[in-house]
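The data are set out underneath:

___
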Amino acid sequence: MAWHSIKSIGDSETLKARARQIRDEIAQVVAVALAQCVGRDAGDPDAQLAASLLLAAWTVAFVQAHLTFGQSRDTGQAQAAFLAVVDKDALGLTAAMAGTPYA
């Protein structure tokens, strides 16, 4: 069922736009939470960058996992595809946040 739902979203420009809007709203909530955790302003650009990088990577990870599952029908391969992207993001996020309170 979930595979068909993801395909439906991918086939609809309206649903893709809404999914991006939701992702951006979540990124803003994450950015505010990050900033609050280190005592910075809610609009802190480092927090916004960290949150955006995190959410972008999770978006890519979910897409890759769904594509992998769609091709293989193997949840283990889908999980591995998801985690491979998340691991790369962790490295990139650590590098991007070097010298900030978010490192």
